[in-house]
Amino acid sequence: MEISPETVSGDLIEIDGEDHQHISKSLRMKPGEGLVLCSGDETEYVCDIYEISKKHTVARVEKIQKNQSEMQIKTILYQGVPKGQKMETVIQKCVELGVDQIVPVITRRTVVKPADLDKKTARWNKISQEAAKQSGRGKIPLITEPVELKGIEELLKKNALNIVAYENETIGIKEIFSRFSHPERIGIVIGPEGGFDNCEIKMLESLGVIAVSLGKRILRTETAGMALLSMIVYQYEL
Ligand code: SAM
Fold first, then answer.
1. CA of 218, closest atom in ligand 1
2. 112 or 114, greater pLDDT
3. Is 219 in the pocket of ligand 1 (CB under 6 A)?
4. Which of 85, 167, 223 is the pocket-test mutation for ligand 1 (most atoms within 8 Å of CB)?
5. Which of 26, 50, 95, 223 has its CA 20 to 30 A from that of 15?
6. Residue of the nearest CA to atom 27 in ligand 1?
7. Higher pLDDT, 190 or 9
8. How open is the CA angle 25-140-181, to the nearest 5 degrees?
9. Ligand 1 atom nearest residue 86's Cα
10. Separation of CA 121 and ligand 1 centre (Å)
11. Distance spanning both ends of the chain, measured CA to CA
């Protein structure tokens, strides 16, 4: 679970709501058992359970440490919103792989209607939370509200390197990695099922985004971000 400062009192942390239910009912944990809690800033609280009541679980902090599972290089995925449940798959898998933030993007070929996206952000953040929990992440990656592709210029400026995966490109990712030894923040732009049109690629390139190939085969939109993230993990982390 992610804790906030209000839940900490001395060396005791009060846990209620869904996390309390999870600890007491699903995991059937008992006083004395160990538990690791994290804050949004990658700080970990290594605890043991002090008390479990109907209302809450109280954990006692034994050690505070920095979470070791976060990537040093931050990756931000700008994902063209796909149809149906595919965005959920993208979020779950990319959070497992270490993505720092996901920005759902509406492009010319996005078929999902903006009105249908209205209620999705809360659910998508919940999926991020679950995936972060299961992967032992030190933070819960934020899934932002959807943005229009033409509106991402400002967001991209924060990144040291921006890449757009483009199936018609011949430059491979290895070539790009060889040019950037340790970029602090990498933006990854992935198209929806119908891909990007030429104008969108030109617009992104005019913003300094580098088009790359992910190989000779066309990947599904939900595979492309995962593949590129895995390549980044391999290149900069392993
Ligand atoms: N029609 C399939 C689908 O339903 O998902 C494939 C869609 S593919 C055009 C979607 C996006 O994945 C592209 O816009 C691109 O960002 C990325 N992509 C897929 N294969 C790629 C490749 N071989 N190289 C670079 N990018 C790729």
1. 20
2. 112
3. yes
4. 167
5. 95
6. 167
7. 190
8. 145
9. 5
10. 23
11. 27
List the domain boundaries for the chain. Answer: 2-66, 74-236
Q: Poorest-confidence range of 40-49, 105-114, 163-172, 185-194?
A: 40-49
- What's the CATH class of domain 2-66? mainly beta
d(CA 189, CA 29): 42
* 193 ligand 1 Cβ < 6 A: yes
Q: What is the pLDDT of residue 68?
A: 87
Does the CB atom of residue 108 touch ligand 1 within 6 A?
no
User: Can you name the residues that pair with 66 across neighbouring β-strands?
Assistant: 43
Q: How many CA atoms lie within 13 Å of 133's alpha carbon, on the beta-carbon side?
A: 15
CA distances 197 to 85, 191, 194, 218, Å, are 23, 9, 9, 15
Q: What's the pTM?
A: 0.89
- Establish whether residue 215 lines the binding site of ligand 1, counting it when its CB lies within 6 angstroms of any ligand atom: yes
Q: Give the C-alpha separation, 204 to 188, whole Å.
A: 11
- Residue 72 pLDDT grade (very low, low, confident, very high; cuts 50, 70, 90): very high
Alpha-helical runs (H) found in the chain: 17-21, 86-97, 114-117, 120-135, 153-157, 173-179, 198-206, 221-236
Pocket test for ligand 1, best of 169, 174, 219 (most atoms within 8 A of CB): 219
CATH of domain 74-236: 3.40.1280.10
At position 8, the amino acid (one-letter code) is V
- Ligand 1 atom 21: the closest Cα is on which residue? 167
